[in-house]
Task: inverse folding
């Protein structure tokens, strides 16, 4: 598809360049030709004048005039052909050079679009794949249950519990996809206002508290009031993703430390499974999940949290920093711009 588009674009570049080049060539040829004819006419006039005065000059004993070189019709035609050949050669060179250049430029122009389309395709395929797993499990369970003639109430409840897990999983994925779309879509405005990073972090921690109980994770917080410039929902989402991951990738009885620094930095530190150096450059890619074989239990996830975090950080003009050591833990931090008391947002 892009090969055809590249050829088409090259053809358009060529048409434009050749139209300009040919019109210049026609203009050059017409004016040079007109000049040649004018010079020929002038010489003819001069020769006629000299011829009419010849008798008078010879009578007075003046030296005879030098013979005028008359540009006859054949010479004129020869010059025309030579000019046309030169112009033809120039145009042919322009055609070849602009053809090659146009093909290269068309490739450069289409490359980001082609990469974007490829990314979109991959995204759709990954999203459908992730949706298919819980859907298939849901369908199979319901079909088996419908075929069973004597299902007990306990079995029915267990089935519904399992179905609910699948539904929750799909709901989580659709929420992630909506969030991703929300923060990646430039048309969705984010509101940069004066917000209290300490308070936002405390609120996130309060909502997250229940999840820590399962693995007995201890969260230590060092928060304080720090006024930053940012979007409230986006900042809260970013903090949620970092803290969620820190808990998720912590070992049993692990520890997570959440700190809000005076300079507007949010730091989330865990002592969990850590991330290999080779994975760090990819963890912000959509659907990327590092090899989790190091972890004893299965850790749920879609590999979308950090891509949402990256989109949020990009929209707010901040940078996420990651430090991690396999088996030792990770530190995710982001520094927001401060909002000084005298600054009105
Ligand atoms: P998910 O957690 O749903 O897999 P994310 O986009 O949040 O997706 O994270 C991408 C990957 O980065 C994870 O699969 C995991 O391998 C790694 N990762 C993220 N945060 C941490 C962390 N705190 N500790 C260890 N690995 C992490």
Result:
């Amino acid at each position: 598809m892009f090969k055809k588009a590249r050829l088409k674009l090259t053809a358009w570049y060529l048409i434009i360049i050749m139209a300009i080049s040919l019109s210049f060539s026609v203009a050059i040829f017409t004016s040079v030709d007109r000049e040649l004819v004018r010079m020929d006419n002038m010489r003819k006039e001069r020769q006629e004048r000299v011829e009419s005065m010849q008798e008078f000059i010879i009578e007075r004993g003046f030296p005879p005039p030098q013979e005028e070189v008359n540009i006859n019709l054949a010479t004129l035609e020869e010059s025309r052909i030579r000019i046309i050949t030169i112009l033809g050669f120039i145009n042919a060179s322009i055609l070849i050079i602009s053809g090659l250049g146009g093909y290269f430029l068309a490739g450069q122009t289409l490359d980001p679009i082609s990469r974007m389309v490829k990314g979109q395709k991959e995204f759709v395929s990954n999203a459908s794949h992730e949706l298919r797993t819980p859907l298939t499990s849901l369908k199979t369970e319901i079909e088996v249950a419908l075929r069973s003639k004597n299902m007990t109430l306990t079995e029915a409840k267990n089935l519904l519990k399992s179905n609910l897990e699948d539904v929750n999983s799909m709901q989580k994925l659709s929420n992630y996809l909506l969030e991703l779309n929300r923060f990646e879509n430039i048309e969705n405005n984010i509101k940069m206002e004066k917000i209290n990073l300490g308070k936002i972090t405390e609120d996130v921690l309060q909502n997250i508290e229940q999840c820590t109980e399962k693995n007995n994770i201890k969260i230590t917080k060092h928060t304080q009031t720090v006024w930053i410039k940012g979007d409230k929902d986006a900042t809260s989402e970013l903090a949620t993703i970092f803290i969620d991951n820190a808990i998720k990738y912590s070992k049993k009885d692990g520890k997570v430390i959440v700190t809000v620094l005076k300079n507007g930095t949010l730091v989330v530190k865990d002592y969990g499974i850590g991330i290999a150096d080779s994975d760090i450059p990819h963890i912000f890619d959509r659907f990327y999940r590092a090899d989790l074989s190091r972890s004893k239990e299965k850790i749920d996830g879609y590999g979308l949290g950090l891509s949402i975090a990256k989109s949020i950080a990009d929209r707010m003009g901040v940078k996420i920093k990651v430090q991690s050591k396999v088996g030792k833990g990770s530190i995710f931090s982001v520094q927001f711009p401060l909002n000084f008391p005298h600054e009105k947002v």
